[in-house]
Specification:
It is a single chain. With 236 residues, this protein is an alpha+beta fold. It is 20% helix and 32% strand. Strands 1-2-5-6-7-8-9-10-11 form a nine-stranded antiparallel beta sheet. A two-stranded antiparallel ribbon has the order 3-4. β8 and β9 form a beta hairpin. α1 runs antiparallel to α2. The longest helix has 20 residues.
Length: 236
Amino acid sequence: MKKTNTAMTAVLAALTFSAVSCATSGTLSSDTLDSSGKPSTSIGRVSSNYATFLGEFDPQRLPETMILYNSFGKLKPRNLQKTYLIPRTNMVEIHFRDNINDICIILPEASRHTIISAAEQFYKDVEAESIRDEKPTDKNAYATMKCDFWWGLASPAYGAENTKMLANSKVVEGKAYFVLRVPSAEGTDKKNRAFSPYTELYFTPAQLRDFCEIIDQEYLVGLVSTLQEKADRYYY
């Protein structure tokens, strides 16, 4: 397998997102306070090793990236045009439409870090041509992490909070891809008895680099720092 050598995409300026996001709507409680007075999220209690607040700013739209999705056994491109940083909770939201569902995946910093670590191992395996042509499973996953998964026909009205996400590799038509998988899970609201749709996001090595760039914590902190500098300007 040939190693993919692609120049890393230039970082675009973040655009302020004026619409109501998944984590700041009435559906979720991402910016409420827990009993200790600290911001809590639907991901559950966040480890003290990770920030739960970056700045008092509205959701910021991140640069567009591309992924692939499986359509009847064929991989087709999909632009991720609605990916946002939520500075008040240090969450990244990924919005897209998958078949009949409008989907929102919410990633905390810990999960973003895990994705980047799994991607590094994937790059090594691609270079070593050691990726096997086998079905992605829990046992052969690079990593397991948590996310909040919201879905619905017109908008993400149903939620499976703190659900499992896995990072795997998969060979399709002789080429290796990095795959983020979210297994079907029962919704948090047990009264509705709703189950989330099984979802897969495929990445080529080049697309994965682009995606990892925009979810990297150092990059996100830099965005907020730039916003804070603009907010603190007085004369110039």
